[in-house]
Design brief:
α1 crosses α2 and α11 packs antiparallel against α13. It contains 18 helices and 21 strands. The protein is globular. Helices cover 35% and strands 23% of the residues. The strands form 4 sheets. Strands 1, 8, 9, 10, 11, 12, 13, 14, 15, 16, 17 and 18 form a 12-stranded mixed beta sheet that branches. A 4-stranded antiparallel beta sheet has the order 4-5-7-6, covered by helices on one side. Strands 2-3-20 form a 3-stranded mixed beta sheet. It is an alpha+beta fold.
């Protein structure tokens, strides 16, 4: 359904309710049903690719992958205290695999695939497709390969085709995160024969083709994609990996203006949106025209990263000075309007093995100035970078930081980087200071630290932080089976981070979503994108 068709349908429903000449009851019911089966989402920034394993793919590509491709496993659901449905990080659920069984020695897992699953073009899904897809994920490099390694999924030899509908993963080592990592966004299953037809010797994984073409078998397929304008998904009626979704078509329009998106929601011209400034969500809740659900994002932080690999931020006293100079309370009240969990003013000693938790810093300009003097870095000039796609909260936060840094002798110019280029820019590891938000898909402290502070230097270690002590602690926490040792190790690496300050935490973000009261079925996921399979309108 094109956008013009959707608008015409909507106007026709209004005309029908007014008794327009020639519009009988039956067409009115059909039009109303069409509206009920279509979900219109308005978003600040749409996907810049159809392949989330591609270089530089942005946040919304994760949602497209989630809805258009299947994975072997998913997560079960649970209900949060406020009634919001959320994934359950501790319980796996079947998706493409009907059953799975870990070997007696704990060194492999065998998956039995659904025999009736097909890709969107009708091709049956087999274990060969699963192997090719897993081989691709561990071979393309960058974010997807690092993500796979977070669950000890590292080389193609681990992935074995037993028969057409049986697939096995051989373990390199016992890793409590391995199966949970199979259920995140990255290891999605691709129609391998279709992809290989469009691969080349220079591009064996069809990265160029899959950037602009979808080859999945998920509950939705890409009907059309106009980058920067609109993405339309239509339901795959032969989907077998779960209950057939009630929503037949999803129209996701890219509308950078938060004011326009909010007005569309309030008029009833859109069903769903997120990415507003916290002030808007605060007002929407108070006005009550639409419903808002907000969930603190597990294993997530807004923070300022300091480039520890290059002068002057290789100086720990400078990093500590900045931590004491941050205008924490102003950021919390003026930029986030209280719709975030504070991560400052904590105890100086780490008493709990939980992450995130407040750092011991508060705003103390005298301490900050003294540390600047000790560092010999008074009169410093630098830049503070942020993702323009997060400017609704990022820009006011950056301005408040800029003002306070000036009070301790740091002149920081603000650099806004287009959202489509943000990950690519981060990967260069050249930004002196960067305002960023990171959430770890697997809710373990050591998983967050593996991504952000381990010497393997992932794309998200934007501080370029290197410490053999930190690496040893993270690795010990990942693989120890002793509960007491685990707790002590987690507290140790959090304490080291507080002292070394490769990042300055500001708060734990709350993921807010606004929707019409007639929309039901929203489920919060670790990737923060809507799962259209759950939605209904009534």
């Amino acid at each position: 359904m094109s956008s013009s068709h959707f608008d015409f349908t909507r106007r026709s429903i209004v005309l029908g309710s007014l008794g327009a000449a020639g519009l009988t009851l039956a067409p009115r019911m059909a039009l109303a049903q069409g509206r009920a089966e279509t979900l219109l989402m308005v978003q600040e920034l749409g996907p810049n690719s159809l392949d989330m394993q591609g270089v530089g793919s942005n946040q919304t590509v994760n949602g497209l992958s989630w809805n258009c491709y299947d994975r072997l496993l998913s997560y079960a659901a649970k209900t949060l205290p406020d009634g919001t449905v959320s994934y359950d990080r501790t319980v796996l659920a079947p998706e493409l695999a009907e059953t799975w069984e870990v070997a007696a020695d704990g060194m492999s897992c065998t998956f039995k695939l659904r025999k009736d699953a097909t890709f969107h073009d009708g091709t049956p899904v087999t274990a060969k497709d699963v192997k090719w897809s897993f081989d691709r994920a561990v071979s393309v490099g960058g974010f997807p390969t690092f993500q796979m390694s977070a669950g000890s999924l590292e080389k193609p030899e681990q992935f074995v085709v037993v028969d057409d509908h049986t697939f096995r993963i051989d373990y390199i080592r016992k890793d409590k995160m391995l199966l949970f990592n199979v259920a995140v966004v990255v290891p999605f299953v691709i129609n391998s024969e279709l992809a290989k037809k469009n691969a080349t010797a220079e591009d064996p994984w069809a990265l160029a083709w899959l950037k602009n073409n979808e080859a999945g078998g998920g509950a939705y397929k890409v009907e059309s994609w106009k980058p920067g304008t609109e993405t339309i998904l239509s339901r795959f009626d032969n989907w077998k990996c779960g209950p057939l979704p009630k929503i037949k078509r999803v129209i996701a329009r890219d509308i950078p203006s938060a004011g326009t998106r909010r007005a569309m929601l309030e008029r009833g011209d859109a069903d769903l949106s997120s990415g507003f400034a916290p002030r808007d969500f605060d007002q929407l809740i108070k006005e009550g025209k639409v419903k808002v659900t907000g969930v603190p994002i597990p294993n997530a932080l807004w923070y300022v990263a300091l480039n520890t690999a290059k002068p002057p931020f290789d100086n720990v006293k400078l990093r500590q000075a900045i931590a004491w100079a941050m205008p924490y309370e102003q950021i919390q009240s003026s930029a986030f309007f209280g719709r975030a969990v504070p991560m400052y003013g904590g105890a100086s000693d780490v008493t709990k093995p939980v992450w995130p938790q407040p750092f011991p810093y508060v705003t103390d300009l005298d301490k900050a100035k003294a540390l600047m003097k000790e560092a010999g870095l008074e009169g410093l000039e630098t830049t503070l970078s942020l993702d323009a796609g997060t400017a609704t909260v990022g820009e006011p936060t950056a301005i408040l930081i800029q003002e306070n840094l000036a009070k301790i002798g740091i002149k920081a110019s603000i650099e806004k980087i287009p959202g489509a280029n943000w990950r690519t820019t981060l990967n260069k590891k050249e930004l002196p200071m960067a305002l960023n938000r990171f959430s770890g898909w697997l809710d373990y402290p050591e998983y967050y630290f593996y991504w952000n502070f381990h010497g393997r230097n992932s794309i998200f270690n934007i501080s370029s932080y290197q410490s053999k002590d930190m690496d040893a602690l993270i690795d010990k926490a990942r693989f120890t089976t002793d509960a007491a040792e685990y707790e002590a190790t987690v507290k140790d690496f959090i304490g080291l981070c507080m002292r070394e300050v490769p990042v300055v935490p500001l708060n734990q973000p709350i993921h807010d979503v606004a929707m019409q009261k007639a929309v039901s079925g929203y489920e919060f996921w670790f990737h923060r994108e809507p799962d259209y399979r759950q939605f209904a309108k009534g």
